[in-house]
Design brief:
- Two copies of one chain form a homodimer.
- Chain A has two domains: 165 residues, D-amino Acid Aminotransferase, Chain A, domain 1 (2-Layer Sandwich); 221 residues, D-amino Acid Aminotransferase, Chain A, domain 2, CATH 3.20.10.
- Chain A is built from seven helices and 20 strands.
- In chain A, strands 1, 2, 3, 4, 6, 7, 8, 9, 10 and 20 form a ten-stranded mixed sheet that branches.
- In chain A, helix 2 packs across helix 3.
- Chain A is globular, with a radius of gyration of 23 Å.
- At the A-B interface, strand 5, helix 1, strand 9, strand 10 and helix 4 of A face strand 5, helix 1, strand 9, strand 10 and helix 4 of B.
Chain lengths: 428, 428
């Protein structure tokens, strides 16, 4: 990496040191806390400095970081992160799901921010050690897990605009329940589902931007739109490209709040098949690991219908006998609205580490301006534009056949009840 | 702001308290330090917490901030800032330039990030007190000043995705010289000028995005492109919209590195006039205060040519006798290239608090892909696309007639040598 006589130290998991806390905190009862609020006993920290490279990783008592007010991360937002989960399986063992993918994506995010990189395997070893020492914080309850948040921040203490040549790489863990609160009357996964609002005046990402990386800076611009969505009675924002276009001209779905977006459409014609569509990774969409897992599982199932290979699912994904297509392609609001009107929109769902798989119950569209925007239904008159929802076929509440199969399969793979492709790894 | 019985405390400058350092640091000699690296003795800090509101502002010894690892600012980049300068005038007094505008913009940025807001006048009073106590750090040398960096960060200690209901608002100051290093052989403002590279694969902002606010998160995505520009031999990136478009199809200039962009064109036809163009504030461009000041000064001059009003400039802005138009409108790379080829591109310059006014000497275009992009000159052949520069009329080096007049006028207004519209305010 450099031509100096002094080599830059790589991130070395064998140097991991542990500083123990004097008194362990009490672990709260699952169900009593919100998402991300609980602080555990430990955190994992390592530092990079120009010229020296990576310090020895340390697991130490959770506590505040001391940062210079001029720090690059505070001034210019060189902050990247990952979201992963550890689960307790029926065998009592703790497992992480495809964590190698998170490590690879974190390196890619760091590179995009001009931050120093590191050996992803070395970081994963250190995180595994953190999860092991925090074992008692992993809730075993259904729908609960230990959320793991690796974070990297640029620490150069200068307001000069430019890359940070020093960084802090730390990981915190926090016990979590379901991301969306569940009514006791409607247990997951038949949860009624979330509602999304497409807001034409707010665009999350765009060609040539940073929407395809997991950067902290992709999130805060969504806070004000999220408040607007909540005020209009929706759970999250549905991000679209092509701001300001009338929906029938093709506002294109990119992703949903903190999730990737999937739609299941009954095929036109009489083949009795279905098409599962998700927007392509064109650089404007987060390359979700749950998204990738869902696509791999669905494609293996679709292949099994025409070959002698084995499906990862034990039951069919739709009630008909036709083919299943799994396609990454642009999906516009107008296509979705037309499919809904024709009764072909079977289900929509979101995928993500935080939510796993969650039903999308309805989609609204918020006009750019009261005078020019056109809502997506046919009842529109030019003087009274309003939000009109796209709803699933038959007013479906909760996960449909595809979403439910994915929810159950991914849940079983994550907690180690089932195995597929070596995706879950026991934390030893 | 809330309906509680307990009122939320507003930011109150009359509560300002000062905690003195024990030993003052030595002030370094101007010319020996880079931009933004020096730490002075003090910083100004105030905290907002949900339910209580603003704490008493405090000027205290400069030092690290203690931040929870889960802080909203580190995880999701709710960080906003301002850039202002204090100058020592020929009368020995310290002055700030249009600082009220910075305060207003900071409030607007905070709102966009969902951060708590504050009374801009109250913050300005506290900053004035900080500048007064740090008086000895203001360099009096030509081209030098005390850079002031108000910063606000969201401090909610939870990784839950959403607005921060607590914040830290702090201000640091640092003595600075010219932003771009000046060769001793070429004193400012006849500085040869900077070069800009338009990179088609990187887009800073877009309609529906946050480019029109001064947010920390607008800066780090530019660090990797900036490195690319430097590798190609250019000083900064020229940000354009319409990524991937061939330049002749109209890649549109938005701004230049950390500056707003101006071009001066000789009019077509024979009226002997000039047109000064800068891109409009359409939400994709930082509403620069130096940009606004330049527009106001230039428009006052243009008006003076046709009315009996007084010009703020003592000499003409071009050698001809024709009219001067000052226009905010989109400006494409192809228009600039055509004007350059026709000998009508008289000058380009950038404006900003950090640079004041700086000459733009040449503009290059970096293709999206070696196989599809088209460079902006006519020597192009399809198999050998290359970077070809737009250069000013007659290969102009340094500021032209308009840029030089602005540089001198703004410099005189900033240090208090001259007065106009009450723009500079003495720090008492």
């Amino acid at each position: 990496m450099n031509g100096n006589a002094h080599p830059i130290a790589p991130l070395d998991a064998s140097l991991l040191k542990i500083t123990h806390v004097e008194t362990l905190k009490p672990v709260p009862t699952p169900g009593t806390y919100g998402f991300g609020d609980i602080k555990t006993d430990y955190m994992l920290v390592m530092e990079y400095t120009a010229g020296s490279g990576w310090s020895a990783p340390e697991i130490k008592p959770y506590g505040p970081l001391a940062l210079d007010p001029a720090s690059n991360c505070l001034q210019y937002c060189t902050n990247v992160f990952e979201g992963m989960k550890a689960f307790i399986g029926p065998d009592g063992k703790a497992r992480m799901f495809r964590a190698d993918q998170n490590m690879t994506r974190l390196v890619s995010s760091a590179e995009r921010m001009g931050l120093p990189t590191f050996d992803p395997d070395a970081l994963l070893k250190c995180i595994t050690a953190l999860v092991s020492i925090e074992r008692r914080w992993i809730p075993a309850e259904n729908g609960h897990s230990l959320y793991i948040r690796p974070t990297m921040i640029g620490t150069k203490a200068s307001i000069r605009v430019g890359k940070s040549d020093s960084a802090l790489l730390y990981t915190l863990v926090t016990p979590v329940g379901p991301y969306f609160p569940i009514s006791p009357a409607i247990p997951h996964p038949t949860l009624a589902g979330v509602s999304l609002l497409a807001i034409s005046e707010h665009v999350r990402s765009w060609p040539g931007g940073t929407g395809g990386y997991k950067l902290g800076l992709n999130y805060s611009p969504g806070f004000v739109p999220q408040t607007l969505a909540a005020q209009e009675g929706y759970d999250q924002v549905l991000w679209c490209l092509d701001v300001g276009k009338k929906p029938e001209e093709g506002a294109v779905i990119s992703e949903a709040g903190a999730m990737n977006f999937f739609a299941v459409l009954a095929n036109e014609g009489s083949d009795g098949g279905i098409t599962i569509v998700t927007p392509p990774l064109d650089g404007t969409i987060l390359p979700g690991i749950t998204r990738d897992s869902a696509l791999q599982l669905l494609r293996a199932h679709a292949d099994s219908l025409s070959t002698s290979s084995t499906s990862p699912f034990s039951s069919p994904l739709h009630s008909g006998s036709g083919p299943i297509s799994v396609i990454e392609r642009p999906l516009s609001l107008s296509e979705l609205a037309q499919a809904a009107q024709a009764g072909r929109l079977l289900e929509c769902f979101g995928t993500g580490t935080a939510v796993l798989v969650v039903a999308i119950e309805r989609i609204g569209y918020y006009p750019l301006s009261k005078t020019t925007a056109v809502p997506i239904d046919s009842e529109h008159t030019e003087n009274t534009p309003k939000i009109t929802d796209i709803v699933m076929k038959g007013g479906l509440k909760g996960l449909g056949q595809v979403g439910k199969a994915l929810y159950e399969k991914l849940g079983a793979l994550k907690d180690g009840s089932e195995e597929w492709n070596g995706w879950n790894v026991v934390c030893e």
